[in-house]
Structure formats: structure tokens, C-alpha cells
Design a protein that fits this description.
The chain is an alpha+beta fold and 87 residues long. It has a single domain, classed as NE1680-like fold, CATH 3.10.510. Helices cover 28% and strands 34% of the residues. The chain is built from 2 helices and 4 strands; from the N terminus they run ββαβαβ. It has helices at residues 30-43, 66-75, and strands spanning 3-12, 18-25, 56-63, 78-81. A hairpin with a 5-residue loop joins strand 1 and strand 2 (18-25). The longest helix has 14 residues, at 30-43. It starts with a strand and ends in a 6-residue tail after the last strand.
Length: 87
């Protein structure tokens, strides 16, 4: 059983659109979570989205569900999309 750490994250695009998502990773490391959040935003074409340490903070620890665990194993982090995120 691997425990993962969830960072509640908010970003805002240049068009003032808000995105809410969780960054899930095996280290409880805010700077790494912030880096992964920025990387993910770039991969979906939102290089202009602003996300800061104040908007990416430790929320809780969990045993990640299978789909998230597979994503973490593949790329060291997973994104759990919530409000305003592309499907």
C-alpha cells in the first residue's frame, strides 16, 4: 500500500478562467506539486495559467485509486480534475 499526497490546486488563465484540480504524488513536497501543476497546465495548452504556492497546498494523504496510481507510476504524478478543467 503506497500512500499518496493530495495538493488542492487552483489556477487562473489569462482569460480569467479558473481551474480547480488536485495534484497527487508520492512525496509530500509542495514545490514538486507546484512544478507538476505547471507542467500539466502546459501539456493542455495553458502555459499562460497562473498557479502559485498559495494556490497549490497540501490537502490530505490517501491510498490513490487504481487509475490515479497507474498515472503516478507512469509519470510521477496524477491530476484529478475538478472545476473548469478540460475533459
Amino acid at each position: 500500500m503506497t500512500i499518496s499526497h493530495v495538493f488542492d490546486t487552483y489556477a487562473k488563465t489569462a482569460q480569467n478562467k479558473k481551474l480547480h484540480f488536485n495534484v497527487v504524488l508520492d512525496e509530500q513536497d509542495q514545490q514538486q506539486a507546484l512544478s507538476y501543476a505547471k507542467h500539466w497546465l502546459a501539456t493542455i495548452g495553458l502555459n499562460d495559467a497562473a498557479v502559485t504556492a498559495e494556490n497549490c497546498y497540501f490537502y490530505h494523504s490517501i491510498e490513490a485509486p487504481a487509475a490515479l496510481r497507474a498515472e503516478i507510476d507512469r509519470q510521477d504524478y496524477a491530476i484529478y480534475k475538478m472545476e473548469g478543467c478540460p475533459k
